[in-house]
Amino acid sequence: MMTIDILLTGAAIPSARDALAEAYTLHHLPDIVDVPAWAARDGNRIRGIAATNGVPVSGKLIEALPKLEIIAGFGVGYDNIDVAAAVNQGVVVTHTPDVLSDEVADLTIGLLLATIRQIPQADRFLRAGEWLEKPFPLTATLRGRTIGIFGLGRIGVAIAERLAAFGVTILYHNRRPRTDVPFQYVGTLKDLATQADVLIIAAPGGSETHHAVNAEVLTALGRDGILINIGRGSTVDEPALIRALENGDILSAGLDVFEDEPHVPEALKAIERVVLLPHVASASVHTRDAMGRLMVDNLRSWFAGKGPLTPVPETPWPQVDA
Ligand code: NDP
């Protein structure tokens, strides 16, 4: 029987790895010691890539696989995949939208409340026995705040819908205003930061948003301002953020993503009032299983000749002739 060879680029959750191993002949990139030698020997057998979140799929790797048809990403963000190289080679790229939006939005609300009300700090205070000596210091509040969402897409809307129940004002900035939401559009990111006192980043990473949140935007957010980032670390100029926190240009930050994961600057860790999470917004068993299923279903659908289920916008399906 003809088997289909798939390259798995990193660690996969057990349910996805089992499903892939059952359906395909798997090549596991981390186990390949000499990639060029492997590519010369086996490269022309690989018809699909199962791309682990965060592991780069470079143009060089794509070019080394002449029979590659599809790159199925695990995650909705795909800034780890060289999509331009895939387009160039006629390779379809898929991702896992929607199935994680609620989970990420739930975590975002948790991170926002944890940051404003200093929930991890209060927990540390109690465990250290400090409550026996004095009450925990009073904190900032969500009451009366204006929330600016940078990137009101699938996840941004899920965040805004949850926030609406908190009775806060919600503004947003995208490249284009939406006609299907009740939230007020702001034309530039700097104006959004000026008008809001909480800035939530739910925009994608990549060159277009690289360091979009810079010193100027942080200063515009103001001394009472709070930055929440669940999008991508590359969107924030991290040294500028550290300076803004150290100088009191903004009040605090809650971060799930960083510029050089899993490395987090010591200067950031040294700031007691920030809340730092190890990129866990979608990381429940329920949601990771759903993401894995959608990644594998994209491959199954493709190799059954039915096209991809959730292609990225750059590789739309059915294909449109240039
Ligand atoms: P969507 O594509 O639905 O939403 C992205 C939004 O960002 C759109 O509203 C888009 O609007 C806006 N946007 C894109 N580029 C720009 C830009 N250059 N300037 C301003 N706005 C922009 O994606 P999702 O909501 O599904 O996911 C968003 C991101 O969240 C992912 O790309 C990923 O990076 C991140 N994520 C993080 C997770 C985590 O674990 N922390 C988990 C899941 C996702 P418009 O096109 O009009 O500009």
TrEMBL record:
InterPro entries in the record: D-isomer_2-hydroxyacid_DH (IPR050223), D-isomer_2_OHA_DH_cat_dom (IPR006139), D-isomer_DH_CS1 (IPR029752), D-isomer_DH_NAD-bd (IPR006140), NAD(P)-bd_dom_sf (IPR036291)
GO molecular function: glyoxylate reductase (NADPH) activity; hydroxypyruvate reductase [NAD(P)H] activity; NAD binding
A Gene Ontology cellular-component term: cytosol
Sequence ranges assigned to domain D-isomer specific 2-hydroxyacid dehydrogenase catalytic in this UniProt record: 48-312
Entry-linked Pfam families: 2-Hacid_dh, 2-Hacid_dh_C
Domain D-isomer specific 2-hydroxyacid dehydrogenase NAD-binding: 109-281
Record keywords, A-Z: NAD, NADP, Oxidoreductase
Similarity remark: Belongs to the D-isomer specific 2-hydroxyacid dehydrogenase family.
Family annotation (PANTHER family): 2-HYDROXYACID DEHYDROGENASE YGL185C-RELATED (PTHR10996:SF178), 2-HYDROXYACID DEHYDROGENASE-RELATED (PTHR10996)
Protein name as catalogued: Lactate dehydrogenase-like 2-hydroxyacid dehydrogenase
Organism field: Pseudochelatococcus contaminans
